[in-house]
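Chapter summary example: a protein plus manganese (II) ion.
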Amino acid sequence: MEVEVKLKLPDASAHHKVATILAPFHKVTHLQENVFFDGANGELSAKRAVLRLRFYNGDSRCVVSLKGKAVLVDGVSRVEEAEEDLEAALGRACVAEPSRLLSAAERCGLLKTVLAEYGCSDFVCLGGFRNVRGVFEWEGLNIELDETHYSFGTTYEIECETADPEAAKNILEHFLQQNSVPFSHSQLSKFAVFRSGKLPD
Ligand code: MN
Ligand code: MN
Ligand code: MN
């Protein structure tokens, strides 16, 4: 189970302010490209499952993710998650030709599980979006500061994966309030925003 605090920042200026304050605690920045798939007959979405290929910094890494039964309440997200690395070139081939996920399953136990559990006989690509993720280690928290680029606009968000979401949320909210950074609890996952086709309110 992946548990994350998700706080939405309203605009680029709030994002910039957080990035500036946390700059001394910056670890790494990832350029992520997220591409999503469903079974050709909607087998995954019918069970609220999401299959994603995530490419890091061009083709330096590719990770297959299967997420399920996502719940997002009061800025805390809980989702069943499994992940496995895949050869980036093979991942690119799957984006270009989603049927390649079937043969890629020979090289990836997680894809094999998807085929078996959801009974997909083929796949469709749903498209996706890019995300610039700054990672910071601050106050014992692993903070991810996201700038997400959809075809219809850009959103800004803080994510923090944690075993104690209420405590992490308190620390983050206090930090933002002290620094006069406006924020709200994220109401939708990035995938849900992407599927909605519009920026959230
Ligand atoms: Mn995760
Ligand atoms: Mn996340
Ligand atoms: Mn995460």
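Key point: The mean pLDDT is 97.
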